[in-house]
Backbone:
């Protein structure tokens, strides 16, 4: 099993959670041990954690246990096979309730692949009413 840290629309109660809840078990609320910039990007107001350590905040999210099949499905959803897609990297995260630390996979993007940032860096993503889910995107 793999641990996967999600910080955006894959969290419980968010629009894309159905993609993760099928085969994964919730482990808990965690935050990154290092600081990252978590921002909203145009044109869909999607949350993106930028692949640069040391700036921004300790990002708050959730960790799920994922088998290899589920991880492959998430890779497809996040477009890791596309030149403009996300990259999956390992980061150290800390359980907010217990303080326990683990290493988990997370999806990040290079700043060079982001067309436009439309928010200040945030520690935790809350659903933005302007968010456009994949099913409503024209591209």
Residues:
């Amino acid at each position: 099993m793999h641990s996967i840290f999600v910080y955006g629309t894959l969290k419980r109660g968010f629009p894309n959670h159905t993609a993760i809840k099928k085969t994964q078990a919730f482990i808990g609320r965690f935050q990154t041990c290092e600081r990252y910039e978590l921002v909203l990007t145009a044109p869909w107001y999607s949350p993106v954690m930028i692949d640069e350590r040391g700036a921004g905040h300790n990002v708050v999210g959730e960790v799920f246990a994922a088998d290899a099949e589920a991880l492959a499905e998430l890779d497809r959803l996040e477009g890791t096979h596309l030149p403009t897609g996300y990259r999956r990297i390992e980061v150290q995260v800390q359980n907010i309730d217990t303080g326990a630390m683990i290493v988990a996979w997370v999806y990040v993007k290079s700043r060079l692949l982001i067309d436009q940032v439309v928010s200040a860096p945030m520690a935790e993503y809350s659903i933005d009413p302007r968010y456009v889910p994949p099913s409503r995107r024209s591209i």
